Amino acid sequence: QVQLQESGPGLVKPSQTLSLTCTLSGDSINSGGYYWTWIRQHPGKGLEWIGFISYSGSAHYNPSLKSRVTMSLDTSKIQFSLNLSSVTAADTAMYFCARGRITIFRGVQSNWFDPWSQGTLVTVSS
Amino acid sequence: QSVLTQPPSVSAAPGQRVTISCSGTSSNIGKNSVSWYQLLPGTAPKLLIYDNDKRPSGIPDRLSGSKSGTSATLGITGLQTGDEADYYCGTWDSSLSAEVFGGGTKLTVL
Which chain B residues are Cβ-neighbours of A47 within 8 angstroms? Predict the structure, then answer.
């Protein structure tokens, strides 16, 4: 059974960098065809896709966050990480990691995320 | 403001059927496939439907998904109190080059 568990500080000061790590069990980061994904949910709001990174290290970020986001893989530790720089109170959210799957057939893209982590609340405050 | 539009809430009695709509545009739902997720506080979000109408292993057949044009629908029959949760649709937006989600729909089983 594949499981994901995120870890990292629950409180980050404004202007600093938010760093989270997601540890995988029951699968390998090197599994082809998967995209290791970060998604967040602001309090009382909907979901926001942050980005994903493939097993080869190729990353794709949400254009609205691209200038501040970096994702990386540590295949030996079966982990992938999120760094979000220059945070403000607007970055306070529940952060989830997930395993993503992407298929493209005749120009139609199908993405889905399964499983997800339970989520960790990150608050940006001084 | 979410890119995809969902009703904020829906409700129905136990045993009844409910549908949750998800409306988009030609660059997202009109072009790509839709997935649906269930979010319950304190638990990991769960994939319910992928590729518009496919159910992952372990998801009961009383859940169904469909897509027509720029809209998608999640259907749940035989409602149970355990179905009370927030439901989100998601798809790739080819113009934004980003995965986009709806604002979520809170299902209440009366």
Answer: 37, 88, 90, 101, 104
Q: Do A110 and B94 touch (CB under 8 A)?
A: no
User: Could you give phi then psi for residue B82, rounded to 5 degrees?
Assistant: -70, -10
Residue A56: what pLDDT? 87
Chain A residues within 8 A of B43 when measuring between CB atoms: 118
Q: Provide the mean pLDDT of chain A.
A: 94
Distance CA B46, CA A101 (A): 14
Q: What would the two tokens of residue A89 be? A: 């109170």
Test mutation, B99, B100, B105, chain A, max A CBs within 10 A: B99
pLDDT tens sequence across A40-80: 999 999 999 999 999 888 999 999 999 999 999 987 779 99
Spatial neighbors of A121 by CB under 8 A, at least 6 apart, are A10, A93, A94, A95
Distance from the A23 Cα atom to the nearest Cα atom in chain B, whole angstroms: 14
Cβ density class B50-59: b for 16+ within 10 Å, e for less: bbbeebeeeb
The sheet that has A3-7: what strands, in order across it? A3-7, A18-25, A79-84, A69-74
